[in-house]
Amino acid sequence: MPAVHDRGGLPTDQPIDRAEHEWADWEHVANALVGVLRRHKIINVDELRRGIEAMVPAEYESSSYYERWSASIETLLVEKGVLTTAEIDAVAAELDGRWG
Amino acid sequence: MGLGIAEGDRVTVRADEVAHHHRTPWFVKGKSGIVRRVHGAFPNPESRAHGGTGMPERRLCQVEFRQSDLWGREYCGRPDDVLLADIFEQWLEPVRRG
Amino acid sequence: MSGDDHHPPLLHADRSVRATRVLAIRQLLIDKGVVTAAEVDDVVARSRARTPADGAKVVARAWTDDAFRGRLLSDARAAVGELDYRLSHDAELAVVENTAEVHHLVVCTLCSCYPTSLLGPPPDWYKSFAYRQRAVIEPRAVLREFGLELPAAMGLSVVDSTADVRYLVLPRRPSGTEGMSQDDLAGLVTRDSMIGVAEAASP
Fold this sequence. Notes:
The structure holds three protein chains of three kinds. Chain A contains five helices and no strands.
């Protein structure tokens, strides 16, 4: 069984959906954070990919592209001691409360 | 391994199943192809993904596989259709000519 | 998007847990002084500004300047550098040429590697599981879905960009374009033709 990200040739009946969605602001932020964190040499692209590949397969499958980036950014920043899960939980709860 | 690989060489991709991050797709593992281009050396993602420096750099080779070698009869196309993939030298072994 | 920390980016109505968490991460990194809001906004602005127009100019130049075309195929970074395009230092660029004998199609089965420096962000379908899974094993069927029926006699080369090299397809110059200016030619070079799921447009 190939790993969840190693998708070439896996059977599917899905046609290719060519509809484009306009990026939400948070997707721009996820993309930009990776750029800035790379420039600061806090993370590199190989680590970003490793963090994505480490997702629980069911979560990988059900997540959108930048949701996967978001998961990996969090994994790496916590692993490197830049942020803690508790801090992220707290601010996320505050943002949820603010924007309801 | 790897050091002598040059454009035009026939190579086989190692069939290793490894748990660490690597950039070799499953469907070329164990398959043979021809090196069409040596892109040069790049930091090794297998080290860099796990906190390493990526040094020493490893050479990245563009390998051409025949689609029918990869997928067998499942492949519906011309027999000379090919797939190009960039594979790091540590995954390649030269095919000895019989 | 505002650079003011107290007015974080708007959330999409259907935001996910991940969306909220990435905005929380942004906020924390700014509060701790790891990054600045301006840095993040700058990358957002630059990413919004990148479009396939840059790739199209490179292709149009290659169509009209044979020596440039040769350099583009052998050392793409140096060649696009002549046109003042700055590629990211993290990825190399290679160009594959469509000819009367062979057509190229680019995919990244492992993630979604793409020549963003010249084409802007990839389309959603390029990142989809369906494209990543099917483009390598049934590329002719995929091309047919995009409306491109390859002649039976034409070979097909699928490029799986697995590592540090990003691939751009140099599409064939359409017939009936003799004497057209580089600018007008660039207008025929679509994003999809540089991924290889289409031919360049006809004038």
